[in-house]
Amino acid sequence: MSSLVHFGQRHVAKGISRSVNAVIVSGKGSRVRLDDERIMLDFTCGIGVTNLGHCHPRVSQAAAEQCNQVTHVQCSIAFHTPYLRLIEKLLPVMPHPSLDTFFFWNSGSEAVEAAIKLARAATGAYHGRTFGAMALTRSKTIYSQGVHPLMPGVFTTGFPYWHQYSSTPSVPEEELTRKALWQLDLVLCQQTRPEETAAIIIEPVLGEGGYVPAPVKFLQGLRQICDKHGILLIIDEVQSGFGRTGKYFAIEYSGVKPDIMVMAKGIANGFPLSGIVSRKELMDKQAPGSVGGTYAGNAVSCAAGVACAEVMQDEQILANVNARSAELFKALNALKTSPETESYISDVRGQGLMVAVEFTSPGRTENDPGANASNIPGLASKVAAICQEKGLLILTTSVYEVIRFIPALNITEKELAEGVTIFKEAVIEAVKH
Q1: Do 88 and 110 share a domain, yes or no?
Q2: What is the longest distance spanned by two Cα atoms in the chain?
Q3: Are residues 332 and 307 in the same domain?
Q4: What's the domain count of the chain?
């Protein structure tokens, strides 16, 4: 372990967790170099941020050029060119033409806060670590541990994920959808009256909750409930947006119109930028000066975002996502049915290059198939650690035994195959020992 790592362990806040005890000194495309000279294949992308790979030359060049023009224009003082150019690039790819008015901020958590504030002003899953966002988060208790009470007026209802109904991965999607919508109806009857409910917020693909796509019928059911009661539907695309699932935004698979959509992560390939978009009618309900922030919509970040939008089109990123996704699912499903590993893998799921493998989870209820005969605690963490030893950075997620695949959207067929081979070897090694 290098002296710089020791220095970091001494002086960096303990509340930050790390997957690898090393310093990443550089990155290019789908690989990073550590301070001990190891070259690692990166299937984390900064948790779904560097969607176009590390240091994409066109994105880096755009940011560098903007640095020599103006680095910062506070949004309450004046417009700046990259902010407006980014809106020009995003308007054609919005999942519905009504989404035409934007506000850019810095992080996903802040964007969720902006969406909450807009919903409350307009009406009288993991969403972040700020207080409003923490109140909406149900993936893990660690994100809000020790800081209760959180924002009041937040009610949780079930997501159509088989674990939440003590079921199995093979249960029909229609049955999970029916139960989840029934539970939501009960919440609106028992806990919060529809006319007093400002919004429903949901990730179209659960991120920190385990990379679980929401069934199309469930999302359509939410839209119907919102329309019936005058409730706003907020779609959180922080992790699933900007091509991650094979479409520009995951909500496109359902055809559902968001009232408000939250964006971040892949929007600027690592430069801090997030945003919300809604229809002008709603956005104009907020008085001038009621939203803002010192660094909101930073010029350099917006310039990087413009370049990202251009690369997405010019390099046919969505086509690559869908081609690599088919290869990844084929390989993972083959591993799931392999005699060596089939009793240890309960689910392979996701969309595009937002993919999860769930291992059997001991210690749950006796009716939960997670508690099956494997009886190996922490299998996902063991697999991730072995992958790291073999040169692949990959992450776990959720309270269950889940490993998530978040490679760069422009990853090559060869690089993907290399990572899958390492993963297979790690799984086989983990279940043997």
Answers
A1: yes
A2: 64
A3: no
A4: 2
Mean pLDDT calculated for residue range 262-282 = 98
pLDDT at 160 over 50: yes
Could you tell me the two tokens for 47?
């948790």
Range of the domain at 98: 57-314
Strands ordered across the beta sheet of 199-202: 101-105, 274-278, 260-263, 232-236, 199-202
Structural tokens at position 171: 């249960």
Place 21 in a pLDDT band, splitting at 50, 70 and 90.
confident
Residue 244 lies in a domain: yes
- Residue 355: the pLDDT is 98
User: Which burial class, exposed, middle or buried, applies to 251 when counting CB atoms under 10 A from its CB (0-12, 13-18, 19+)?
Assistant: buried
Q: How far is CA 388 from CA 6, 20, 384, in A?
A: 20, 8, 6
- CB neighbour list of residue 154: distance below 8 Å, 6 or more residues apart: 135, 136
Determine the average pLDDT of the residues in 225-252.
97
273 and 149 within one domain: yes
Rounded-to-integer distance, Cα 419 and Cα 433, Å: 21
Among 107, 151, 155, CA closest to 132: 151
Q: What is the mean pLDDT of residues 47-63?
A: 98
Identify whether residues 301 and 345 lie together within a single domain. no
DSSP 273-324: -EEEEE-HHHHTTSPTTSS--TTTT-HHHHHHHHHHHHHHHHTTHHHHHHHH
pLDDT digits (tens, 9 = 90+) for 32-43: 999 999 999 999
Query: If you average pLDDT over residues 119-133, what whole number do you get?
Result: 58
Q: Are 248 and 95 spatial neighbours (Cβ–Cβ below 8 Å)?
A: yes
